[in-house]
Write a structure and sequence with these properties.
Largest sheet: 6 strands, mixed
Number of strands: 6
Number of helices: 8
């Protein structure tokens, strides 16, 4: 299990963070990475490109000139594709480019991308983005102290949508902010480096080690079975039964 250096806001080493081998030492599957990136880029497409066919062109339907006697090739309507201003043949039309991948494939692709970044030493961890005041100059000073201010694309991973962190880093043109639960394969590969805080890195490792699909269902069933067994094995105190004394006297004999 590998470790990564942790820095404070002054850019000085303050400790080490242990990376989970299940997340950052996963086997790299280039085919899965390719499929994930292809699906991400395809899902970004709007699919609104459109061209007009000869049937959609607003043009006169009158024959260009008479059929015979001119010495020219016979022609029909001016909306034919070979005329200027005519229709387009085999042009694009609105369509859905959406592609979907199973959850296990998406996770495996993300773990492969994280393993690649870890092997390239492209992961930087900071204690916490707790600045004295939410000013962009503090964020710029931190990047300079970490010697990553010259990088084109820095992916800042936070635990949750913290308004303070967003205000501090949002005005920097080379920084993109994402939460740990929304991190994607394309974002990891497209970034020059990943900038984490300890809480966000810990949250990412927890999320990516949770079972998914049928394994998640089985884990839930096992937890429920264990809790039921624990409840049944717990001894219950018997209900206290009190017998009221017989205070009434029998009748005179």
């Amino acid at each position: 299990m590998s470790t990564v250096q942790v820095y404070n806001l002054a850019g000085e080493p303050s400790g080490e963070f242990e990376l989970a081998s299940e997340v950052f030492d996963a086997p790299v599957n280039e085919a899965l990475i390719h499929q994930s990136v292809k699906a991400t880029l395809a899902n970004r497409r709007q699919g609104t490109a459109d061209t007009k066919t000869r049937g959609e062109i607003s043009h006169t339907t009158k024959k260009a000139y008479r059929q015979k006697g001119t010495g020219r090739a016979r022609q029909g309507m001016r909306s034919a594709p070979h005329w200027k201003g005519g229709g387009t043949v085999f042009g694009p039309h609105p369509r859905d480019y959406n592609m979907s991948l199973p959850k296990k494939m998406r996770r495996a692709a993300l773990l492969s991308a994280l393993a690649v970044k870890a092997s390239e030493e492209g992961i930087i961890v900071v204690d916490a983005f707790s600045f004295a005041e939410p000013k962009t100059r503090h964020a710029a000073a931190l990047l300079r102290a970490l010697k990553i201010d010259g990088m084109n694309r820095i992916l800042l991973v936070v635990k949750e949508r913290d308004d303070a962190a967003i205000r501090v880093f949002n005005n920097l043109p080379n920084v993109e902010i994402v939460t740990a639960d929304m991190l994607g394969t394309y974002q990891v590969l497209n970034a020059s480096c990943l900038l984490f805080e300890q809480a966000s890195l810990r949250r990412l490792q927890e999320l990516k080690q949770q079972p998914i699909g049928s394994a998640r269902w089985l884990a839930k069933q096992q937890m429920e079975a264990q809790s039921a067994t624990k409840e049944s094995s717990t001894p219950q105190s018997p209900a206290s039964t009190s017998i009221a004394p017989d205070t009434e006297q029998g009748g005179a004999q």
